[in-house]
Structure formats: C-alpha cells, structure tokens
Amino acid sequence: MVHSILLLLSASTGDPVQWAQLSIQQRVIIRVPMTRKGRAPARIAPDAREQWQEKKGPRCIALRSIRGGSIVVKNGVDLVLADNHRYRARLEKGCDSVGFYSGFYVEPDEDGSLCSGRDELQARSGLSCAIESFRRLIPVEEED
Q1: Residue 132: which residues within 8 A CB-CB, separation 6 or more?
Q2: How confident is the model at residue 26 (pLDDT cuts 50, 70, 90)?
Q3: Which superkingdom heads the taxonomic lineage of this protein's source (predicted)?
Q4: Is residue 63 within 8 Å of 112, Cβ to Cβ?
Q5: Distance from first CA to last CA of the chain, Å, rounded?
C-alpha cells in the first residue's frame, strides 16, 4: 500500500521516480556467565575433575537452557543447564579454557542451539575456540 501511495504522489509531480532499498540486519550475542564461589574467578580446580564422569553427549544444546559455566579441565568449559544437568564443551585442539574464566559469548544460529562441529565460544579477550564435542557429566558416587 505504501508503494501505491508513493507512486501516486510522484506521478503528480512529473519528476523521475528514484527507488532505494534499505536492509536492516540484527546481530544477537548471548553472554554466558561463569559460576563462582565468592569473588574468585572460575578456574581449573584439580579436585573438581574427579567429581564428574564423562559420558557421550548430544551434538547440540539449546541455548535457552544454559544458565552458566565453569572451568574444570584445561581443554573444556562445563555448562550448567536450567535443569541442573551438566555438559562439558570440549574445545578444539590447542585451545586453553583458562581464557574463558570471565565468561564467554555465543552468536546463536537460527535453530537456537549451540552445536559441536559448528559453533564456537568467544572470550572477552578476543579468544575464539570451536566446540569439538559435548560430553554429558554424571556425578561420581562416593564409595563408603
């Protein structure tokens, strides 16, 4: 309808009609905070490695379910989900997770998921690491 009105207005003046196209693009970036105890930054805790057993994980995780993260191993970032499940995002070879101690950013895909083999984590420092795989973390039962 707007085009019709513009055509009527421009036809009455006799001036040549010029058309232009406007593209509006939107960029969304999601920040995932790191979980912390007190004020100390989340970092590799040697005793925390033994509390979780890794199992095969999914290819993708819904971004809306991620609530936070922590660093427990050198080459991965643990993700804490809304339902209290944990997944470890294993990073590409040569990528050190310590760079993500203050949180990370993710640019969501159209499907709203964070996927291994496709997406990457971006640190505030500029470090960017591809996600190699996800591993499901199961709490290790202490033996009596």
Answers
A1: 90, 91, 92, 93, 116, 117
A2: low
A3: Bacteria
A4: yes
A5: 76
